[in-house]
Write a structure and sequence with these properties.
The protein is of the alpha/beta class. Helices cover about 30% and strands about 25% of the residues. The structure holds adenosine monophosphate. Adenosine monophosphate (AMP) binds near residues 303 and 306.
C-alpha cells in the first residue's frame, strides 16, 4: 500500500518560489567588478532570474543544454544558478583557476552551448575559444558601460540582454530527477570527471546541510560563502541559504582579500561563513594584525582539507567563532560529515576534546559510511582500525557524466569508494588519515600525513605545512615535513622536530624538514602533494 501524501517533485524551483514569496524583502549583497556593493532583494533576484530564463530561450539554448559559468561569487552567478536549472537546463560551473587545457577539455566534454563569463576571465577564454567549437557564444557578466572589448565570437552583454526581456516567464514543471548542475572534479590525476547533480539530490543536500548539527542555517543569518560558487556550488549555500531565507553576502573577486572579507562580515552582519583552510588562514592573520573583531560572525564551516587544531582554537579563543569542521567531495554534493557534538561527546575534555575537534565529524542523515580493508571486509568503528572510506547516500553520485560504467569508483553494490583512508570511532566520527595515494607507509605501518601537518601547524612559527612520504632504504618510506615559516620566524630543523615529541608516536616524527617560501596548491586551494612530490623528486634524506 502506498501512502496518500502529495507527490510534489523536489525541485530548486520550489526554493525559488518559497524564497520570493516568503522572504521577498531579504537582501543579497555582492561585490562585483562594476560595483563595490551591489544590493537587492530576493524579489528582485528572482524577477531577474525569470528575465534570464527568457534570455536563454532567446539565445536558443536547447532543452538539457549545458550552460557554463566562469564566474565569481555574486548575484549574477546566483541568478544563473536558478535560471539555468529551473528552466530545465544544466548549470555547469567551471573553475576559472584551472589550466587552459583543462578548461578546454571540460567545455568540450560537457559540450557546453553557452558560456557566461566574468570580464576577469575573458582573456583566458579568448586563448582557447577556437578549441571549443561547440560553444555557440559567450555572455559577459557586466553592464554595458563596463563591457570589455573582446575577440570572443558571438559575445553579448549580460545586462543588455536582460534589459530587453520582461519577467513574464512561467517556470516549467520539472521531474525531480532531472539534471540541474554539473561540476568537474579537480582531476589531479587524469582528466577531470563530471558530477551531474539533479534537483532532488540538490534539494535534499540543502535540507541536510541546513540542519542544526550541520551548518544550522536560519532566516536571521547572514551567510558569506567564501568557498567559490565554482567549487561544488559553494557547498550548496546558494540553495540552503535561499531555502531558509537568510541574507546572502557575496565577496565577488575579493574572495581572497581578507580586508574586504572582514568588512563584509562586520558591516553586513555576517553570522556564518564557509571556506577551505587556505583562505581562512589569511583572514585570521589579517584580523590579528589589524586587531579587528570578526563579530557578528559566530561560526565558520571549514573543509575541503583538514582544518588544523590551531586554526580552530584561534577562531574560538580570539573571536568566539565556532569552526564547523566538515568533510565531503564533489561527488557528494559535497557534504558528507560534519563535526557536531553528540550527547555523549559534548562532555569530553582536555586532550580527548582537542582530538575530537580535529575529527571530520559524523555523517549527515542521508549519508551512510563504512571503512573496509584490502579484502573489502568491513572494519570496526573503534577509532583505531583504518581503511578505505566508502559512502552512499541521497546526494552521492552514482556515476560520472559521460563515463557511465567506466569511472571505476563504484562497487558492484553501489557504494562509492572515496579514495580517502579513515578510521571511525564508536560515536561514528570519522578521522581522515590521508588520501589513499598520499598514505605514508613506514616499516609496514601507516603514518598519517594529516596528523603530522596538524601538529606542525600548531607551532607558532609555522604558516603552512605539508608532509609527504620519501623513499627510505631501511623503512621503505619516511615522512618529510615541508614548511613555510611565518614572516620573520627563524625556527630551525631540530627545534621543529623536537616540537613533535610527546605529541605523536616517536616513529611518526618526520625524518627531516625542508623550508620553502610557498607550497603548491590546486585550483580549489588545497595542498597539491602531487606537485610537491614533483618539486622534491631529487630530495634524499641525509645519509641515505
Ligand atoms: P573535492 O572533490 O575537490 O572537494 O575533494 C574532496 C577531497 O578533499 C576528499 O576526498 C578529501 O580527500 C579532501 N577533504 C575534504 N574535506 C576534508 C577534511 N575536512 N579533512 C581532510 N580532507 C578533506
Amino acid at each position: 500500500m502506498f501512502g496518500l501524501m502529495m507527490d510534489l517533485p523536489l525541485t530548486l524551483t520550489t526554493f525559488m518560489r518559497h524564497g520570493e514569496r516568503n522572504h521577498g524583502l531579504q537582501e543579497i549583497v555582492s561585490v562585483t567588478h562594476d560595483n563595490p556593493r551591489h544590493r537587492y532583494t530576493y524579489r528582485e533576484c528572482f524577477s531577474r532570474a525569470r528575465r534570464l530564463a527568457r534570455v536563454l530561450d532567446r539565445l536558443g539554448a536547447s532543452e538539457n543544454a549545458r550552460v557554463a559559468t566562469l564566474a565569481w561569487n555574486d548575484y549574477r552567478h546566483l541568478e544563473l544558478y536558478y535560471a539555468i536549472s529551473c528552466s530545465g537546463r544544466i548549470c555547469h560551473t567551471v573553475n576559472p583557476r584551472l589550466f587552459e587545457a583543462q578548461i578546454t577539455y571540460i567545455l568540450n566534454h560537457a559540450e557546453d552551448e553557452w558560456v557566461f563569463v566574468d570580464p576577469a576571465f575573458v582573456p583566458r577564454l579568448e586563448q582557447i575559444a577556437k578549441e571549443s567549437p561547440a560553444v555557440k557564444g559567450y555572455v559577459i557578466l557586466s553592464d554595458a558601460v563596463n563591457m570589455p572589448s573582446t575577440s570572443l565570437p558571438n559575445a553579448y552583454c549580460y545586462e543588455t540582454l536582460l534589459k530587453a526581456e520582461s519577467d513574464d516567464y512561467g517556470w516549467p514543471a520539472l521531474d525531480e530527477r532531472r539534471a540541474s548542475g554539473l561540476c568537474y572534479t579537480s582531476g589531479t590525476t587524469g582528466n577531470p570527471k563530471g558530477v551531474l547533480y539533479d534537483h532532488r539530490s540538490t534539494v535534499l543536500m540543502a535540507f541536510g546541510s541546513a540542519l542544526p548539527d550541520s551548518c544550522g542555517l536560519s532566516a536571521t543569518d547572514g551567510v558569506l560563502p567564501i568557498v567559490p560558487m565554482f567549487h561544488v556550488n559553494a557547498w550548496g549555500l546558494p540553495f540552503s541559504a535561499i531555502m531558509v531565507g537568510a541574507k546572502l553576502v557575496f565577496p565577488g573577486p575579493a574572495l581572497s582579500d581578507p580586508a574586504t572579507l572582514t568588512e563584509l562580515i562586520t558591516v553586513e552582519g555576517v553570522t556564518v561563513s564557509a571556506g577551505v583552510p587556505t583562505v581562512c588562514l589569511p583572514l585570521l592573520a589579517h584580523v590579528q594584525k589589524t586587531q579587528q573583531s570578526l563579530a557578528p560572525l559566530n561560526r565558520i564551516v571549514i573543509g575541503g582539507s583538514a582544518c588544523p587544531l590551531s586554526m580552530m582554537e584561534a577562531f574560538r579563543d580570539r573571536h568566539q567563532v565556532r569552526v564547523i569542521h566538515a568533510w565531503g567531495m564533489t561527488e557528494m554534493s559535497p557534504l558528507g560529515t560534519v563535526n557536531a557534538p553528540t550527547a555523549q561527546t559534548r562532555t569530553l575534555e582536555g586532550v580527548a576534546h582537542a582530538e575530537h575537534l580535529c575529527s571530520q565529524g559524523r555523517p549527515i542523515p542521508g549519508v551512510e559510511i563504512k571503512i573496509t580493508d584490502d579484502d573489502n571486509v568491513e572494519l570496526p568503528w573503534d577509532g583505531k582500525a583504518s581503511g578505505a572510506l566508502k559512502v552512499r547516500g541521497w546526494w552521492v553520485c552514482r556515476d560520472y557524466f559521460r563515463l557511465e560504467g567506466a569511472g571505476g569508483a563504484h562497487e558492484a553494490d553501489g557504494w562509492f569508494v572515496t579514495g580517502d583512508v579513515a578510521s571511525i570511532d564508536p560515536h561514528g566520527f570519522i578521522r581522515i588519515t590521508d588520501r589513499a595515494k598520499d598514505v605514508i607507509k613506514s616499516g609496514g605501518e601507516w603514518i598519517s600525513s594529516i596528523d603530522l601537518e596538524n601538529t606542525a601547524m600548531g607551532h607558532p612559527d609555522i604558516e603552512e605545512a605539508a608532509v609527504i612520504g620519501v623513499t627510505h632504504p631501511k623503512w621503505q618510506e619516511r615522512p618529510l615535513l615541508v614548511v613555510v615559516r611565518k614572516p620573520g620566524a627563524e625556527i630551525r630543523v631540530l627545534d621543529l622536530l623536537r616540537w613533535f615529541e610527546g605529541k605523536v608516536a616517536k616513529w611518526w616524527i618526520p625524518e627531516d624538514v625542508v623550508f620553502v617560501s610557498s607550497l603548491p596548491h590546486t585550483a580549489t586551494g588545497k595542498l597539491s602533494k602531487l606537485e610537491l612530490r614533483k618539486q622534491l623528486v631529487d630530495y634524499r634524506f641525509p645519509g641515505t
